[in-house]
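Please check this one:

***
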Amino acid sequence: MISRELYRQQWVGNIRADLLSGLVVALALIPEAIAFSIIAGVDPKVALYASFSIAVLTAITGGRPGMISAATAATAVLMITLVKDHGLQYLLAATVLAGLLQIGAGILKLGFVMRFVSKSVMTGFVNALAILIFLAQLPELDPRNVTGMTYVMVAAGLAIIYLFPRLNKTIPSPLVTIIVLSVITVAFGLDVRTVGDLGALPDTLPVFMIPQIPLTLETLLIILPYSVGVAVVGLLESLMTQNIVDEFTDTTSDRNQECIGQGIANACTGFIGGMAGCAMIGQSMINVRSGGRGRLSCFTAGVVLLILVVGLGDIVALIPMPALVAIMIMVSIGTFSWASLGNLRTHPRSSSIVMLATVVAVVYTHNLAIGVLVGVLLSGLFFAGKIAQLFAVRSELAADGRARTYVVEGQVFYGSVEDFIKSFDFKEALDRVTIDVSAAHIWDISSVAALDMAVMKFRRTGAVVNVIGLNRASETIVDKLALHDKPGALDKLSIH
């Protein structure tokens, strides 16, 4: 649990920078939230209310200060079928249930699973997100949809973003970009797309509402698959983004608390007419690169977002899309790990394959969970292959030629049992066979079964078999699996 003093410091330790960065993030959230609502097939206010609620609540209850959470495409795409088949009310109910599942994950301390995500998977995740962020801007750069002035404005926006910090590092350059390009667009009446072109902004505050659905088992069975998917994908993206922000800011944070915070945010959001969301790497990087480090930055983003769309909607609608496109291109460039391209030549081939496979899977499917799953599975396979190579069996024949000792060295598990069995000569006529595993470790049911098979085959030839050198952990698993799985050679053998 975080101490009261540290929690307070996370709110007041960086007030000025958090307020400014939160303002920038709020402006960047608006067009994305509207786009995500279109993806899910719901009214723009559903995603805008969600972005407000999730940002404010995760700022208060989350485990990672400075990380921005709101409505996201990762969760929106999972809800398309549910909305199409059953309507908005079922989406709201699924959002509440997803939040409760995430709270449960935090209470059960499932945040530890992130330790099994390798650095290669993390790099692939980051690079894939950078590519997706850039690809998401292409519709706003399609010459069939925009005028030539759009490209001029985007170029001007990028110039301000990268050159303004040379003059002043106090004011976030993305905020300056939005203000300057908005003034120019209005003053000269430029023909470019604006935020208002994406859809109508809400003009009322969200109100508490209970999803209007039948409280039956049938309803639960309808929303449960969607809720589980949203809960898993949401936590996965949030914890991955949390790791990235941890590394960028050189700080640590509480994964289990973040799971609980995300769950509380989603569960509450469903009761104000909002859709599910999670952490957003793009906005999080905008925040930290603009100086946001504390909880106040995410809280400010949520509150300012609501004020802008409800109270100042007419003004916000005038913001030119090229300004926001320029900001997101900056985020894409800054997020991509350019060093990873050079590392392809120097890093182990297996690590490079994992990284590239994660990128390809995420970009191809637009599903972060699938991409990370592919990366984790490949990492596991490569790791198992490497461990399996750290295995050997050597044998020593006694002087009388009637006894042989097999010395097993290394890790005996499902990945090495085939080589383990091949190491024995079961056709050799022997009176005594000793299998010395003092330099080995028995890991799983596959290795126990292999040892059991070796003993049985030698016994069939009439040899007396002794297994010696089992360490305590290996002996425990052999006793448990050999005695209780099914009768075999080991349960009739005195193991020393």
Q: What stands out?
A: Residues 217-249 form the longest helix (33 residues). The chain has two domains: 4-378, 390-492. The domain at 390-492 is CATH 3.30.750.24 (Transcription Regulator spoIIAA).
